[in-house]
Design a protein that fits this description.
Helix content: over 70%
Strand content: under 5%
Number of strands: 0
Largest sheet: none
Order of helices and strands: HHHHHHHHHHHHHHHHHHHHH
Structural class: mainly alpha
Distance between the termini: 20 Å
Number of helices: 21
Amino acid sequence: MKGQNKLFIAIIIALILGVGIGGLVHVKYPESAEPFSKNIKLLGTVFIRLVQMIIAPLVFTTLVVGIAKMSDIKMIGRVGTKAMLWFISASLVSLFIGLILVNWLEPGHVTKLPVQDVASAEDLLKSSKSFSLEDFVKHMIPKSLFEAFATNEVLQIVVFAIMFGVALANLGEEYSKPVVKLFDIMAHGILKMVGYIMWFAPLGVLGAIAAVVATNGFEIFKVYAIYLRDFFFALGILWLVLLLVGYFILGNRLFDLLKRIKEPLLIAFSTTSSEAVFPKLVEELEKFGCNSRVVSFILPLGYSFNLDGSMMYMTFASIFIAQIYGVEMTIGQQITMLLVLMLTSKGIAGVPRASLVIIVATCSMFGIPPEGIALILPIDHFCDMGRSMTNVLGNTLATSAVSKWEGQLTEPLDKI
């Protein structure tokens, strides 16, 4: 059995064990649920931190090498333009799907949710008040590269790496070659570490799932069944659209691509972290045949600008809260909200629970009670599972599509 399949099976087993162990603790030892959750969650924390440890250096080295090797500034501009066109189109489609389906299904009109303690949303309410154009600029432009590395501000690292890569590309091969070679070796060394770190994934999955089920029990699946059902139905429609576009561009190779990213998708779903699979995605996309320069350029950008699952969730959750409180919104207001979400969502990449912060800010702007976010906080973990997995799919398809458009998609490396 291949190592990849072994890891996939190990993750599935860990997922089942996590639900079973968490359920057992919740039913048999409810008094121990909280300390148990706190301790077993450390397994997930270890895995996430191991991945976070290598994200900044990996993004920086691969992006600098990718741009410096392009050497042709026109090619950089062309690839960047194609990527941004994909990102904007995918974001608008995701937002519209969320808007259409939440109006059609009306989960807020048919669901009677228990009123949650508004105090649970206080942190998000405070975070949303600070959101502004100034906040956007601060999250995009680093005042120190070392601070950006220390805080894992991917967007800031991307900005510096693009400027540095362009500078190296224009410096001439005589000067740039040794630096590019050094970063190339570093990038390959970090990718080698990915293989080791991924074997911690089953433990991370087990810890994350067991903690949630032990604390909330199986009831959490029932209480919000309608909301989750409608949201995942909307996600399914978004997946169908993305896969149809992917098939139109990649043809039958789409199925090979999906087979290769099954582990990253499952890890993102289980740990609710799309960044946890970033290193593995880089590796798998290059094996799939995507040009390494295109991968190292587009994938980090995608993690900042192309979060399809999160985009769809924003319109879905915002209108859902409006429905719960009986706030009627005209089509014009909803489309205006969609455009606001389109712009503001690009401004806080790297912010924890960014989707919820943006929803709170948007609700305040349109007269929807922002404390309504407390209603969906208890099940946000499960929604985040679907969001994270969809974000991974969207960025995978974006990178593969641009590679194909550039004529840089070769045969899979492990089949040559």
